[in-house]
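Q: Given only this backbone (358 positions), what sequence would you predict?
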């Protein structure tokens, strides 16, 4: 306490020496975002906690406050549409499946890349006029190594390897309306011989797996692995990483989709709303999101693949991240990417509801 008083006294003396009034001193000491509230639409749980750990304290140090509007990108997109672009947030997490709809609506502000210097560390294709890439996600098969060995089940390499009587009722899969639902469904569709306009082969294969639970929140898979309710899951490599770090002996497999195609990719984007009254703060947030420090934290704690090139090199030193994720550029290029320009999401959802969600 004495030290703080002495520091404050020293600042006041210095201010008096150069002729600053108390009002001027307060202005000089104010942060870049003094009194600014920035609203960010993102997932809750550990996803938000990563931002609270690294980004929020920096913004608060500049005098501002960050409020999170939590929910899946689908849920937040619905809020945006309902508000007719007068968004209840300034920055939004956007899935690759939503890009076309976002561009058609025209609710995003043109980005000022001069305010986002960390974009110099990401690839050109991850930058567009209204959006910037934020993370890559790898969708995998996660399985309990010990349980598979006990049951004599070989290491799975394809989705079809999950169709076994020993696994019936012991597998989880993301619901199509969850954050990872479209990408994982699309991956299974392609692996089963279908495509964006013919999803029935994928629906048949999913039904053959005899899924225990179609989850809406990825954290459910961790809890189910811990309880023993499941011994395999389809979903984001990040949940497999978090399950392993929680003490369950799981590992990930990037499934073979077809010859020359291994694994399934999902891509995240960030955009600033036209309706935002604090665009400078929104750009600041995106720049921090793309920093090496945050991208490394995100990767090692949540299993997301960084798009910051420096961060990718750093996480190669983390043994669990290196085990769960594909970090080689040539291997990443082999992953299945869903062509959402050919997808009518409402049709996919209708077919899913009729065939799977019963």
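A: Predicted residues:
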């Amino acid at each position: 306490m004495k030290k703080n008083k002495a520091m404050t006294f020293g600042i006041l003396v210095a201010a008096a020496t150069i002729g600053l009034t108390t009002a001027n001193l307060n202005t000089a000491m104010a942060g870049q975002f003094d009194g600014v509230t920035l609203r960010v639409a993102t997932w809750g749980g550990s996803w938000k906690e990563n931002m609270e750990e690294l980004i929020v304290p920096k913004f608060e140090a500049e005098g501002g406050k960050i409020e999170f509007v939590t929910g899946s990108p689908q849920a937040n997109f619905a809020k945006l549409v309902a508000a007719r672009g007068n968004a209840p947030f300034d920055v939004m997490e956007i899935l690759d499946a939503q890009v076309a709809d976002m561009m058609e609506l025209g609710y995003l502000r043109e980005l000022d890349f001069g305010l986002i210097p960390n974009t110099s560390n990401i690839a050109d294709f991850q930058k567009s006029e209204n959006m910037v890439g934020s993370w890559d996600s790898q969708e995998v098969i996660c399985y309990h190594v010990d349980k598979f060995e006990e049951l004599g089940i070989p290491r799975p390499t394809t989705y079809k390897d999950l169709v076994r009587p020993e696994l019936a009722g012991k597998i989880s899969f993301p619901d199509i309306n969850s954050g990872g639902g479209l990408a994982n469904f699309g991956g299974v569709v392609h692996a089963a011989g279908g495509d964006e306009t013919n999803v029935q082969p994928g629906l048949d294969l999913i039904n053959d797996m005899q899924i225990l639970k179609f989850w809406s929140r990825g954290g459910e898979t961790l809890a189910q692995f811990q309880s023993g309710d499941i011994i395999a899951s389809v979903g984001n490599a990040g949940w497999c990483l978090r399950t392993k770090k929680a003490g369950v002996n799981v590992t990930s497999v990037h499934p073979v989709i077809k010859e020359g195609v291994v694994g399934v990719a999902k891509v995240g984007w960030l955009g600033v709303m036209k309706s935002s009254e604090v665009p400078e703060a929104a750009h600041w947030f995106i720049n921090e999101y793309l920093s090496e420090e945050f991208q490394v934290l995100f990767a090692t704690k949540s299993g997301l693949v960084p798009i910051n090139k420096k961060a990718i090199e750093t996480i190669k030193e983390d043994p669990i991240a290196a085990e769960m994720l594909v970090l080689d550029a040539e291997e990443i290029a082999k992953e299945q990417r869903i062509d959402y320009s050919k997808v009518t999401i409402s049709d996919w959802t209708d077919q899913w509801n009729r065939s799977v969600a019963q």
